[in-house]
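request received
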Amino acid sequence: MTNTEGADSKAKLEEFASDIVSDISAGKNPKFTATARTRSNITYDAKKGYLSLGNAKEERSFLNVAQSKRFMQTIAIAAKCHKFVEENLHTTIRGLYYQLKYSLGEDVDENIFNEQAESNPLIEDLEVSLNMRREDLNLNANRKGVLSGNVKIIDTFGNEKLEIDASKMGRSGWAIPSDVDNDIKFVDVKAKYVLVVEKDALWQRLNEDGFWRKENIILISPQGQAARGTRRLIRKLADMGLPVYVFNDGDAWGWYIYWTIKTGSMNLAYIGSDIATPEAKFIGVTMSDIEHYDFLKNMTMKASEVDLKRAQEMLAYPWINRHKEWVEELKKVLVTKKKLEQDTLQGPRLTFVDDYIRDKIKRGEFLP
Amino acid sequence: MTNTEGADSKAKLEEFASDIVSDISAGKNPKFTATARTRSNITYDAKKGYLSLGNAKEERSFLNVAQSKRFMQTIAIAAKCHKFVEENLHTTIRGLYYQLKYSLGEDVDENIFNEQAESNPLIEDLEVSLNMRREDLNLNANRKGVLSGNVKIIDTFGNEKLEIDASKMGRSGWAIPSDVDNDIKFVDVKAKYVLVVEKDALWQRLNEDGFWRKENIILISPQGQAARGTRRLIRKLADMGLPVYVFNDGDAWGWYIYWTIKTGSMNLAYIGSDIATPEAKFIGVTMSDIEHYDFLKNMTMKASEVDLKRAQEMLAYPWINRHKEWVEELKKVLVTKKKLEQDTLQGPRLTFVDDYIRDKIKRGEFLP
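response:
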């Protein structure tokens, strides 16, 4: 998929509609196709390094009793998105749902949709079939994540072009939006690498130390699991040639966040190439860190049942067990039944975390 | 409590320590007192309009078998905070916990703390007994929330004074930090009022419309339940004379978020005066909105068990049932078993939400 702006979105939606109109005019059964998002069509390709969809297609046609309603619903969604793009206004899939609910008015007994769970998969149908992301259709997803460092953001706000300097955002950082493609640019990227820090607390620690300035890097926190916008931004920064290092807790949740950034996820396999960053490396914390930093011995926590179960599961994933370093790390957790949090690195002194990152990058000691 | 800067924090911590040293030198049992944070000492004062602590005090002394360990732990926490303030570095209560864990080193079998649940209440002890907030002790709390509008933020970052213009933050807004008091100022506040919007999605909608510019307001989203920093900032803006309107879902969660902003919460009653904004008004959405906006009739959702239970509970709170408007609203929910989301206001068209806010403010139609 490519970076599309409003004009492209409008054209693509109109092409989608005109194909259907042509079918109808020609007396044919109107239909469209979408790549299947079924589990069986999700593949991990070692060469690509991320989860994506295979070649299986699904057809949605109007003259099919099982599909007729869904077909009509998808057309209604496309029409709404076309309007949003024309108006140059954004909403969410929930806002879209209420517009559809409103459309038929109070006198019609049948709603287009009775609940949002019905409309969500159809939006994905549309994304896949148009080869666009919902952000390109003016639908914002949940946003989360923050950034500071040597990069400027050129954001378009109404008729204004704003220049936001991510090195001048102080304690707050720049809040990463849902859409980092349309009407927004990242310029003057002078950084050496991107450091992604799971916890906002650790991001704040490194930010306060001016770590991004001293090391000339871009410092990102997804603030937990990475939202679509943050994943997409990490991918874009990698496309600019920046190495990506991820610094997380050494536990089930930290590993999961890392692998989601690196290989994408089942749910979003349909936009895998846009949001996965297979080049990413795991900087820590790891159980092996104890060998270099003696004090960590005293800082471990008991691994929870969830951590152990997750470690076991991860050993079965082909995209993980192909890396012997990960197999070793996970086995260490399973044998010792211990884990480490990234916060432990504040133990000796608050700025120790800075040294740890520098040190590991210098030694080139990452998990793949 | 007053806005304290680093120098004050240091002085207060040193006074706290020197009192204890004096006790010891004089051969007395070292002790300090803290206002009791027990449920029975939490009061709602209708004149103040928020939850705060009563006059009951608790003494913590060293020569008391039940208190000796906690006393020692609190002193250790105070010493660490003193160091953080001196270094001019911040961490979280989790970072503090790991510093305490580290302190005794690997050769001592006994940790100062075995888990963080032990240290958290002692930090509150210290806040109460010093009459300071943890943010003044260089301990950051979780942050969440975003702001745009006609206000400038003067943030101190290392040796730099940064001026961040909240009217130039584009689609992202300015991320509200944990500490909005120390080394940070809010200047050029030219706004007419503050609008607090529960859901980030609706904040983004209004932000995109330039609603804050057109109406000359400050637009805040707590992004769900308001964090300490966001509550404190709302209080500070009210102190500058700005009216505060809250725009939430008309359900259990939306009501809870409103009342937490307005009257504070049980957990944070010890800093009630710093974070509660009794002047706040509830702009909507309400079940009464259906009378003015006919289309909303078709937009209601079934109230969940949680919503109904919460409505019932709220009717028993003296700070709620003193307002007949709230009693009426809650009874409407209980009778109809329906509720409304703020997203519904995007039904007729995306910008309808702007008109709704203007309209309700013009009519002065709020719940107290």
